[in-house]
Amino acid sequence: MNDTVLKNIPLFADLRDEILEKIFDLMQKRIYKRNNMILMEEDVGDTLFILNSGSVKITRLSDDGREVILSILGEGDFFGEMSIFDGESRSANVIALEDSEVFILKRGDFLDLLEKHPKIAITLLQEMAVRLRRSDQQIEGLSLSDAESRIAMSIIRFAEDLGIIKMGQVVIESLPFQQDIANMAGTSRETVSRMLKMLEVKGWIQRKGRRLVITNYDEFVKEFG
Ligand code: CMP
């Protein structure tokens, strides 16, 4: 492992090589297997996590014990910043959706970096604004009455967060499991399964294993977004 991996982390974009080397020396690497809990809601936390490979789900439990997925993060994303900034306990659970490698940075080291390199702070704030907008959309979306619209909105979120756009199509290499999609859309796994089949039959999507292709993304967003 060397510091060139940090070049692919948006938070550290455009930093000089010698700065990346210094940051790299401050970080610890850790591997989590699929379904491992990385952070637990209510735990005290003073570390920042950067996802070098894999994906994670951010979850909370509803009052009746159901898992609610707030977001899914992929390669290059960070998490754990909220406790660092407000000093409160972890705001949510973070669970590996697949085998994942993370870099961990201590609170003091991270705050030092932000002071020395305001560019990192600006990128971080931009990403936090994106997350707040998405949360706002999710709140609005959850009040939509039909489950189908909520599932379609979740698929659009996955496309934005995990997808790769190619000639009008969006390819999601590793679609979250149907139960996870259901937990994000606030519906049942069976409804998700039915909806995916319907979208496939109507030609909106193609599926092979966990790979999902949205055949015409602009039209999909117009129809369901
Ligand atoms: P922290 O509260 O330290 O630990 C849980 C982490 O989950 C939190 O920091 C954020 O990094 C992340 N998180 C919490 N809520 C959301 C959300 N709505 N969207 C994306 N990430 C979130």
Considering the chains and any ligands shown, give keywords for the structure.
single chain, 225 residues, alpha+beta, Jelly Rolls, Arc Repressor Mutant, subunit A, 4-stranded antiparallel sheet, 8 helices, binds adenosine-3',5'-cyclic-monophosphate
Please characterize this protein's 3D structure.
By secondary structure, this protein is α+β, with helices and mostly antiparallel strands. The protein has 2 domains: 137 residues, Sandwich (Jelly Rolls), CATH 2.60.120.10; 78 residues, Arc Repressor Mutant, subunit A (Orthogonal Bundle). The strands form 3 sheets. A 4-stranded antiparallel beta sheet has the order 1-8-3-6. A 4-stranded antiparallel beta sheet has the order 2-7-4-5. Helix 4 runs antiparallel to helix 5 and helix 5 packs across helix 6. The longest helix is centred in the middle third of the chain and has 25 residues. The chain is globular. The relative contact order is 0.13. The mean pLDDT is 93. It binds adenosine-3',5'-cyclic-monophosphate.
**Whole-number radius of gyration?**
18 Å
- Main sheet record: 4 strands, antiparallel
- Low-pLDDT stretches are none
Strand/helix succession: HEEEEEEHEEHHHEEHHEEH
Strand content: 15-25%
- For the record, the CATH class of the largest domain is Mainly Beta
CA(first)-CA(last) distance: 41 Å
Please, what is the CATH homologous superfamily of the largest domain?
Jelly Rolls
User: How many domains is the backbone divided into?
Assistant: 2
Individual helix count: 8
Q: Give the total of beta strands.
A: 12
Bound molecules: adenosine-3',5'-cyclic-monophosphate
Mean pLDDT: 93
| Alpha-beta content class | alpha+beta
Shape: globular
Helix content range:
40-55%
